[in-house]
Design goal:
single chain, 295 residues, alpha/beta, Rossmann fold, two-stranded parallel ribbon, 10 helices, binds NADPH dihydro-nicotinamide-adenine-dinucleotide phosphate, binds dtdp-4-keto-L-rhamnose, binds magnesium ion, EC 1.1.1.133, NADP, dTDP-4-dehydrorhamnose reductase
């Protein structure tokens, strides 16, 4: 049975990839740190060669954006050197690699949505290390797809939705930055997109390769996002708080973040016919799942 190796098994994306309905003839082999430490490039090579995998989805990453500023050796090992090792191993095995990247490769200076070939200029260590991963995969010789995504949220793991609900339960008002714009992404919707892509890559030698953007549709700011989270939470009898929109200058963090990281879907629509749904609708599914768990 063809098997797909998935890293980041316990992360948001890895969790949702394992929850997809896969074809009966496909097996998902999902590994996390305990099974495969991505800072060990020899272990990556050995894992990819351990059985005849049909493809690899590298969903693991060092995602602590602020911590990465002072922990850059680990961030670069996981986000750049590991993708390089996967690229080399996949090229040797003759199998496709799906690498996940981020809106934080952009500096945020553009007005409007970022296209896949727009110039990259990361503002911090996380974005720079993820860009390193992109470049390594692109030059590895492996047949590959790189999907940049943004603001990933789900009912599992660490993310903005869960942070807002947790903090909002204890406070009347929350200060949230209103001058950083982008597009939230449901990890489930991202997983469904990666499923479509990886199955095409496995079954069709002429499937589109290269770099694509996927997020949910619609632009927002973190402050508007927070307000919508509380609006939808309150509707379900969950925690709510008032959102006070603030400028980034009033929320100092170790890492700089892009002012606009909205991603254009033109490339993924043209190549794969994928049309993302609105982020509010995706958020509604996540809150349904979270509130069901609370009940
Ligand atoms: N989260 C977001 O907002 C965004 C994410 N992305 C990208 O999407 C992808 C998926 O992100 P997401 O699911 O949210 O990330 P998570 O932070 O939820 O999960 C990351 C996973 O990577 C694993 N990991 C970290 N270090 C290592 C290591 N040394 N060896 C093995 N595994 C390791 C973690 O394991 P453990 O749990 O054991 O630490 C965790 O399971 C990543 O490539 C990320 O860069 C892109 C844009 C936005
Ligand atoms: C908790 C909190 C955050 N913020 C701000 C900080 C930041 O600018 C923004 C979002 O906070 P986060 O900690 O979720 O941000 P961050 O960790 O930067 O999220 C990023 O993660 C990486 C992995 C990515 O690839 C990006 O696409 C993006 O999702 O909101 C507030 O203004 N008030 C608050 O109370
Ligand atoms: Mg964070």
């Amino acid at each position: 049975m063809p098997a797909i190796l998935v890293t980041g098994a316990n992360g948001q994306l890895g969790t949702e990839l394992q929850r997809r309905q896969w074809p009966d003839d496909i097996e998902i082999v999902a590994v996390d740190l305990a099974e495969l430490d991505l800072t060990d490039t020899d272990a990556i090579a050995a894992m990819v060669a351990s059985r005849p995998f049909a493809a690899v989805i590298n969903g693991a990453a060092y995602t602590a954006v602020d911590k990465a500023e002072s922990d850059l050796v680990t961030a670069w090992a996981v986000n750049a050197l590991a993708p390089a090792a996967f690229g080399k191993a996949c090229a040797e095995a003759g199998i496709p690699l799906v690498q996940v990247s981020t809106d934080y490769v952009f500096d945020g200076s553009k007005t409007g949505a970022w296209e896949v070939n727009d110039p990259v200029a990361p503002l911090g260590v996380y974005g720079a290390s993820k860009l390193g991963g992109e470049l390594a995969v692109r030059t590895s010789g492996a047949r590959h797809v790189i999907v940049r995504t943004a603001w990933v949220v789900s009912a599992h793991g660490n993310n903005f939705v869960k942070t807002m609900l947790r903090v909002g339960a204890d406070r009347d008002t929350l200060n949230v930055v209103a001058d950083q714009h982008g597009s939230p992404t449901s990890a489930a919707d991202l997983a469904e997109t990666l499923k479509t892509i990886v199955l095409r890559l496995i079954r069709d030698d002429t499937a589109p390769t290269g770099t694509f953007h996927f997020s949910n549709a619609g632009a927002t700011s973190w402050a508007e996002f927070a307000a919508e989270i509380f609006r939808q939470s309150e509707q379900r009898g969950g925690p709510s708080a008032r959102v006070e929109p603030i400028p980034t200058s009033e929320y100092p963090t170790p890492a700089r973040r892009p002012a606009n990281s909205l991603l254009s879907h033109d490339a993924i629509r043209a190549a794969y016919g994928i049309e993302p749904r609105d982020w509010r609708e995706a958020l509604s599914d996540i809150l349904d799942e979270l509130m069901k768990e609370d009940a």
